[in-house]
Amino acid sequence: MKTMGVCVYNTKGQEKGEIELPAIFNTEVSPALLHEITTTYLNNQRTGTHKTKTRGEVSFSGAKPWKQKGTGNARAGQRNSPLWRKGGIVFGPQPRDYYTKMSKQKRKLSLSMALSAQLQNGNVIVLDSVNLDEIRTKKVVELLKNFELENKKVVFAVFHGADFRLAARNIKNVVVENVKNINTYQVLWADKLVLTNEAIDSIRERQSYNK
């Protein structure tokens, strides 16, 4: 796999040089694996607490509503029948665990694929740093304007960025994530992926680790 060079910018949108991206940014993309990983991630976010009451759980007396014959009504044994209003639900959802296991090898490979796909689509921006003069939301908004990222889904993958995360937390569709925790779904969700030099070094180390 070949390495690729991309421009490095400062927070004002000015070019500051160039950096060679690691070979993982040139991984062959498998849509099937990316689909498998993203659906697994979304499944694992589900709480599985949905619940409907069966006829044995609804609050009704077990008495027969009326006598069997002579009323002109259809035969009825209990008011908790699924055929009746407020009766039990037949085959309704019950609490369950949606967790799906995925191998480390697949998770690791899918992250390289997601990064490569975003780079191929021109959706990766590299910054020299995300350090701000002031910890203010206004400063992050100015950064987004400098790169024409307003009204887009943006993921900042940073190595050290507690202050930047604090300043960006109230901006819609802007996610600041520690690069050590970044996952395939977050990378693919973003319209633009913003990385720092330190984050790229961390990704290179993380993806080259064999275990």
Textual characterization of the structure:
The structure is a single chain. The chain is an alpha/beta fold and 211 residues long. The protein has two domains: 4-46 and 99-208, 3-Layer(aba) Sandwich (Ribosomal Protein L4, Chain: A), CATH 3.40.1370.10; 48-97, no CATH class. 32% of the residues lie in helices and 15% in strands. It is built from six helices and six strands; from the N terminus they run E-E-H-H-E-H-E-H-E-H-E-H. It has a six-stranded mixed β-sheet. A hairpin with a 5-residue loop joins strand 1 (4-9) and strand 2. The longest helix is centred in the middle third of the chain and has 17 residues, at 104-120. The two termini are 21 Å apart.
Brief characterization of the structure:
This protein is of the alpha/beta class and 211 residues long. It is built from six helices and six strands.
CATH architecture designation of the largest domain:
3-Layer(aba) Sandwich
The fraction of residues in strands falls at: 15-25%
Find the count of extended strands (DSSP E, 2+ residues): 6
- Would you state the CATH class of the largest domain? Alpha Beta
Oligomer: single chain
The computed structural class is alpha/beta
Q: Can you tell me the CATH topology of the largest domain?
A: Ribosomal Protein L4, Chain: A
Total number of helices: 6
Q: N-to-C SSE series?
A: EEHHEHEHEHEH
List key phrases describing it.
211 residues; alpha/beta; Ribosomal Protein L4, Chain: A; 6-stranded mixed β-sheet; 6 helices; 6 strands; 15% strand
